């Protein structure tokens, strides 16, 4: 084991890690936004919208993400839609992960007892106020652990964007391995870096979880 | 949490120990190959005519045909282990298999792996879509353009070296986008994501023939000629020697030149020694 061989390649690896972080952050944000739309459509949309979203969700849940990535990057151009590798990656991650996130959010919203909504209406609160002040603050706490798991999954899956030439961390790693001929050292160091990145994400979500759930004890957090 | 940490430590130490054992393995792989009557060959069969799959999914091509004849001579079976090219040299160094065919012989790689005597010669070339604005395969005409290559291959590394020269001369480098297979580089070219593909000429000629729907054209050669050989882990000199001896016999009895005519349409004389380039 000689980790010194990696030293000349640290800038290249750091650049890759930076891109991975950027892609993950971006894709988590777009997935959450898309999930909010899907949830809204699923709960408040017309029958046609609800059906469309249901079919879409079923479709995506039954597809490996690599297949979806290839379709977006290699098949869409034959239909005249050519998206840059970076955006094809963001789009794929969003298409793939937003239905999972939407399911988590919908489940959380449904977990809020109906009595609370009725009570809100009884005292004359507007529907929007009930949503923002009663349902969402509680649902956020319920949805967060599941959303965190999905966001971590998404971050790990950014590595597959290397196959469509997005020069992220895994791409940079393959390049460095091909130059250093040191697969053990390189992949061990890279695994450690991924682990640190994901642990930071996990820690962030746990902190957020504690704050969102300030009004009730959360089991298993911070003990 | 405490339990988890303990098991993590146990896992990591097990990992370190097992890595230690792999790198300390002292027996030459030739003994294992002969004892198990099995030669494990890592291959990325997406590189016609060197190595590809036929309609039934069987691995065929120039190098597989030679490997199977060599295995026959040694009295062993060939077991293919299919993987992306970018995983092949790392796997070879890690000792995950015995041999891999169709590697460009480079000085850099020769410091880390051993080569069986070459089985073919390779010249890189530039493929374009006719009339897409790339005038020739000269590096100056490629400067500033985007070219698709296979990740971690010799053509990619050659283009990176040429980029260093371009930058030194104050010119724009070629933007390289890397993929896992030759079909993907061709798709990137056809879809207009790249202005050219740089790879082995015989592979590109096959791609032009296979994609008659696109106006593909090999516009010229780039870089010098290189030998193509099979890679073996440096820990197994006896295996390398045995494979080289078998290939030499196949060259001597005319089998290799027959296969060259069959797959490439021309023949090339192969060196048995001193084939590693100086740098």
Please, could you describe this protein's structure?
The complex is a heterodimer of chains A (223) and B (279). Chain A is mainly α. Chain A has one domain: MetI-like (MetI-like fold, Orthogonal Bundle). In chain A, helix 1 packs antiparallel against helix 7 and helix 7 packs antiparallel against helix 8. Chain A starts with 9 loop residues before the first helix and ends in an 11-residue tail after the last helix. Chain B has 279 residues and is of the alpha/beta class. Chain B folds into 2 domains: 134 residues, D-Maltodextrin-Binding Protein, domain 2, CATH 3.40.190; 102 residues, Periplasmic binding protein-like II (D-Maltodextrin-Binding Protein, domain 2, 3-Layer(aba) Sandwich), CATH 3.40.190.10. In chain B, the strands form 3 sheets. In chain B, strands 5, 6, 7, 8, 9, 10 and 11 form a 7-stranded mixed sheet that branches. The termini of chain B are far apart. About 2% of the residues of chain B have low confidence. At the A-B interface, helix 7 and helix 8 of A face helix 4, strand 9 and helix 8 of B.
């Amino acid at each position: 084991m000689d980790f010194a061989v990696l030293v000349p390649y640290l800038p290249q690896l750091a650049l890759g890690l930076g891109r991975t972080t950027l892609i993950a952050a971006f894709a988590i944000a777009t997935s959450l936004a898309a999930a909010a739309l899907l949830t809204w459509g699923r709960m408040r949309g017309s029958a046609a919208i609800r059906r469309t979203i249901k079919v879409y969700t079923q479709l995506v849940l039954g597809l490996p993400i690599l297949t979806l990535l290839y379709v977006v990057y290699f098949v869409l151009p034959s239909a005249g839609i050519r998206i840059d590798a970076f955006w094809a990656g963001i789009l794929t991650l969003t298409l793939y992960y937003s239905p999972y996130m939407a399911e988590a959010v919908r489940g959380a919203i449904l977990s809020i007892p109906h009595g609370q909504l009725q009570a809100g209406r009884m005292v004359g609160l507007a529907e929007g106020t009930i949503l923002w002040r009663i349902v969402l603050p509680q649902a956020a706490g319920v949805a967060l652990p599941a959303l965190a798991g999905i966001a971590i999954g998404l971050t790990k899956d950014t590595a597959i964007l290397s196959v469509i030439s997005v020069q992220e961390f895994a791409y940079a790693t393959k390049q460095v391995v091909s130059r250093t001929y040191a697969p053990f050292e390189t992949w061990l160091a890279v695994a450690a870096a991924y682990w640190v990145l994901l642990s930071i994400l996990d820690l962030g979500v746990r902190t957020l979880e504690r704050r969102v759930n300030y009004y009730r004890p959360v089991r298993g957090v911070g003990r | 949490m405490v339990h988890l940490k303990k098991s993590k430590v146990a896992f990591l130490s097990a990992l370190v120990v097992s890595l230690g054992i792999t790198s300390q393995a002292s027996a030459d792989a030739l003994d294992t190959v002969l004892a198990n009557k099995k030669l494990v060959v890592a291959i990325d069969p997406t590189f016609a005519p060197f190595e590809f799959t036929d309609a039934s999914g069987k691995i065929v091509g120039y190098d597989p045909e030679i490997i199977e004849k060599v295995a026959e001579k040694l009295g062993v079976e060939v077991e293919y282990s299919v993987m992306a090219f970018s995983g092949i040299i790392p796997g070879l160094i890690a000792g995950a298999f015995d041999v891999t065919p169709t590697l460009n012989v480079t000085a850099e790689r020769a410091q880390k792996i051993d080569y069986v005597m070459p089985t073919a010669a390779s010249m890189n070339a530039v493929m374009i879509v006719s009339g897409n604005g790339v005038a020739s395969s000269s590096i100056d005409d490629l400067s500033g353009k985007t070219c698709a290559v296979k990740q971690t291959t010799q053509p990619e590394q050659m283009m990176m070296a040429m980029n260093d020269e371009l930058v030194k001369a104050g010119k724009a480098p070629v933007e390289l986008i890397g993929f896992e297979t030759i079909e993907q580089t061709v798709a990137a070219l056809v879809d207009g994501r790249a202005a050219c593909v740089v790879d082995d000429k015989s592979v590109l000629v096959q791609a032009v023939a296979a994609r008659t729907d696109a106006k593909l054209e090999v516009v010229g050669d780039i870089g010098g000629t290189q030998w193509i050989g099979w890679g073996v882990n440096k820990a197994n000199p006896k295996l390398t020697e045995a494979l080289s001896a078998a290939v030499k016999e196949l060259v001597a009895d005319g089998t290799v030149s027959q296969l060259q005519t069959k797959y490439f349409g021309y023949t090339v004389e192969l060196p048995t020694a001193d084939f590693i380039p100086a740098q």
